[in-house]
Amino acid sequence: MSDPSILIVEDDRNLAGLLKYNLEKAGYNCCHVTSGEDALEKLREQAVSMVLLDIMLPGIDGFEVCRRIRQNVLWGDLPVIMLTAKGEEIDKVLGFELGIDDYVVKPFSPRELNLRIRAILKRDRRHRQEVQEVLRSGDLELDIGRHTATLEGQPLTLTLMEFKLLSLLMKRKGQAQSREVLLSDVWDVDKDINTRTIDTHVTRLREKLGDTGRRIVTVRGLGYKFEETGE
Question: Is the per-residue pLDDT at 83 higher than 50?
């Protein structure tokens, strides 16, 4: 098996060089670009295992790059870690809303970053091994391996985080899940991140699911659960 390949999107060439040196020393193959446009072009040309993405970039910023990655049928599952000097909660929430896998504030330890990368790539490999898993509830079907959703036999367009949230609720059918648990298990973040993120995604899911959205039941004072028949 070849070494994982990491795309570094960073306009600070000194920092990018340091990242590239440390990651290649840890066994990764790395390529570097300095703008969002170049990052998207590189993804069209070369398969990578992960993107390290700065927010403050010339041209289109890191948030827009992440949005386009998640909307692309070929790159939708690609792990993304945001590297940024912006540590405000609103930026973290926006990043996780867009489907990033982790958020690292500069300055950071190369060793810590390497541990985070390893953990995410390991989790991603496990996810891709679930090729035979299909979840069904009435006329709703999720194919975990192919990362597709259908409702009444028609394709259902879900964002990465909507797909992950719905699949987790369906896997734990009938079991109430707190907002904190959902943040931890779907977004892999601590409970200090605003839990309204969950409510926003549930609202969007219900809208996309129509009448089937009633199967996502609100558990007052706690969170949500998925039932075969909505209450």
Answer: yes
Confidence (pTM): 0.57
> 79 preceded by cis ω (within 30°)?
no
- Kindly give, in sequence order, each residue whose CB lies less than 8 Å from that of residue 132, ignoring residues fewer than 6 positions away: 145
**Residues whose CB falls within 8 Å of the CB of residue 189, separated by 6 or more in sequence, listed in order:** 92, 96, 183
Tokens 């810590």 correspond to what residue?
112
Of residues 203, 207, 216, the one with CA closest to residue 177: 216
| Confidence class for position 220, pLDDT limits 50, 70, 90 | very high
> Alpha-carbon distance 153 to 171, whole Å?
20
CB 142 within 8 A of CB 134: yes
For each of the domains in the chain, give its residue range(s) and CATH number, in order of start.
5-128 (3.40.50.2300), 134-226 (1.10.10.10)
CA distance 175 to 160: 22
pLDDT tens column, 186-199? 775 554 556 788 89
Q: How far is CA 89 from CA 30, 86, 181, in A?
A: 29, 9, 19
